[in-house]
C-alpha cells in the first residue's frame, strides 16, 4: 500500500473512523495488532508493525489536528507489550505544530485526557 493512492486514502479513512469511535466510547487504547485486525475486518490489509501502519497513524493525527490544537488520535494505539504508544507517536507529538511537553508518560496521559474531553458527548 502506497501513500497518495485510493487504497491508502480508504485505509486512512478507516483508521480515523476506528479511532474516533474508540475515543467517543471512552474505550481503552487499542493495540497495533488490534487496529490491524479491525482494518482487516473492514477490508484493508495493514500489518501491525510494517508497511503503511506508522504512516496511517501519523496521517490520521495530522488530518484531525493539522494546526496542533486538537488531540492526536494516534495516542489511542499502543504496543501490546508495554501498553504505551511507540516512539513514532512521541516524535510526532513533540514536533511542530504539536510541541507537546513532558516526559513520555506525562505527554501520553495528557493526550488521552484531551481526547476524552474532546470526544465527550459526541
What is the gist of this entry?
With 122 residues, this protein is mainly α.
List the helices and strands and how they pair.
Layout: H1 6-25, E1 30-31, H2 32-41, H3 53-64, E2 77-78, H4 87-94, H5 104-119
Parallel strand pairs: 1-2
Helix pairs in contact: 1-3
The first-to-last residue Cα distance is: 32 Å
Compressed to H and E, one letter per element, the order equals HEHHEHH
Overall geometry: globular
Largest sheet entry: 2 strands, parallel
Number of helices: 5
What is the strand tally?
Answer: 2
Overall structural class, as computed from helix and strand content, comes to: mainly alpha
Mean pLDDT: 94
How much helicity do the residues have?
A: 40-55%
Structure commentary:
The chain is mainly α and about 120 residues long. The chain is built from five helices and two strands, in the order αβααβαα. Strands 1-2 form a two-stranded parallel sheet. Helix 1 crosses helix 3. The longest helix has 20 residues. The model has no long low-confidence stretch (mean pLDDT about 95).
Amino acid at each position: 500500500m502506497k501513500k497518495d493512492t485510493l487504497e491508502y486514502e480508504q485505509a486512512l479513512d478507516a483508521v480515523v473512523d476506528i479511532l474516533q469511535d474508540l475515543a467517543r466510547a471512552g474505550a481503552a487504547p487499542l493495540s497495533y495488532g488490534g487496529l490491524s485486525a479491525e482494518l482487516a475486518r473492514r477490508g484493508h490489509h495493514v500489518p501491525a508493525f510494517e508497511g503503511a501502519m506508522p504512516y496511517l497513524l501519523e496521517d490520521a493525527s495530522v488530518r484531525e489536528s493539522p494546526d496542533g490544537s486538537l488531540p492526536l488520535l494516534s495516542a489511542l494505539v499502543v504496543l501490546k507489550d508495554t501498553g504505551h504508544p511507540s516512539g513514532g507517536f512521541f516524535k510526532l507529538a513533540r514536533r511542530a505544530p504539536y510541541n507537546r511537553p513532558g516526559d513520555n508518560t506525562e505527554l501520553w496521559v495528557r493526550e488521552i485526557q484531551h481526547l476524552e474531553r474532546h470526544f465527550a458527548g459526541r
